[in-house]
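The material for today's practical consists of a large collection of protein records. There is nothing in a record beyond a sequence line and a structure line. Backbone structure tokens are a discrete shorthand for how the chain folds in space. Nothing more is needed to start thinking about how sequence determines fold. As an example, a complete record with its sequence and its structure tokens follows.
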Amino acid sequence: MSRLSAFRRLIGAGWVLVRADALIPRELDPVLPASIRLVARLLRLLAGPRARLGRPGQRLAGALEGLGPAAIKMGQFLSTRADIFGTPFAEDLSRLKDRLPPFPLAEARAEIERNLGRPVETLFSELGEPVAAASLAQAHPARLLDGTRVAVKVLRPGIEQQVAQDSAVLRLAAALADRLVPEARRLKPRDLVEVVIRSLDLEMDLRFEAAGCAELGEAMALDPYMSAPAVIWDGVGKRVLTLAWAEGEPLSNSDALELPGLDRKALAENITRGFLAQALDHGLFHADLHEGNLFVAAPARVVAVDYGIIGRLGPGERKYLAEILYGFLNRDYPRVAKIHFDAGYVPAHQDVDAFAQALRAVGEPVFGRDARDISMGRLLAQLFEITALFEMALRPELVLLQKTMVTVEGVARRIDPAHDIWAAADPVVRRWITRELSPAAKVRDFADEALKALRAMVRLAEAPLAEAAPPPVPTSRALWWFVAGALLSALTFTAGALVFRGGL
């Protein structure tokens, strides 16, 4: 798509929002500054006849639905934050999760046969009408020839072209924000958009989703918090994915939380702990945990579906995340501040003590209070002010993590309004700290470093061997290198043992 075409689509998207009175809705007038209120009223002169119909969330959902997958993804994110935007607004947007208009079953059958290279009847004894339709794909109930109940996901026809067009518009919007809004530059809008586009591109190949589901399912199986459906590999293609049927009710159903015997507190905790266990213990996590992708059953069982977006964290990011959470859990703000500086999240020229003081100003008012008494909107606004004050730039590699953390908390709060994310996180974070930063872990790290040093020395010793013809001298030299490495390893193990004993 050309830049001019992208600009026209961007203007068109703004026009759709203005016509629906969804850009700066009239309901916000009482809380807007006078200058913004004037702009909003001028824009409202261009509103269409539907701008007076329905609530703000209903108008925004209708507008986003016609703007493509990227806009729908944004609506899905907003729908998880009832604690910020209000329950009616969130519920109005929730239909964007899995209740969009489906495409015909006949088209889905043709797509399945084209992708799998075989007639539908050779794999499925039944293939039903779609039960859920989202922005990129829809899901069909089916049965394998042996009677096993499965779900078949099929991409929407022409969705790749639509995503490419949306991506061009997003890149243009990010470039304009970067150039025209200096305050936005520290958020690195261009990098942020590239992360979103990359995740959408990966969602266009369902073979990647099948692999992510299988990999993350193995990690989930190690904890009781959450599970993944099994992959039916015979039913996997680039545009088709077959998974075992997820038992339970989707959280996006209004009656899901009224299931007999459902423990809402435990359910909310399982969702929070399941996400944190994935991120901290395994370095990969389901990065699209909205209600439409979560199936629940009594008393607190959770099955996650839709693995199109998988987030990954390296060892360093996992360590920083765990230590930051651990510091907040213990209200150790100097430690949290130091970790931010060590990780490079805050520029080195800033004052670490002043940053710790700022963190305390945000953290202390929320500890010991019922979650229902905490305004997440006000808290997020305070955090944003702090990041600006201390020149914290957005970290593109952490965008999916941050977005998922916000989504998970929003979902958990909707299940249990009194959900305390810190109390829920405590056992998972402390388990990681105990395992990775304990004296025993230090011994293990010493051993790992010793083995690495030994391998490096052996490689150095073997390098001349490949060039020299007479074997006796190089062999002797290699032996001395090996003995030196063994001594170093022994010394390292001894030091580790002393640390371990001292720690105990």
Notes: The CA atoms of residues 270 and 400 lie 20 Å apart. Residues 438-503 form one domain.
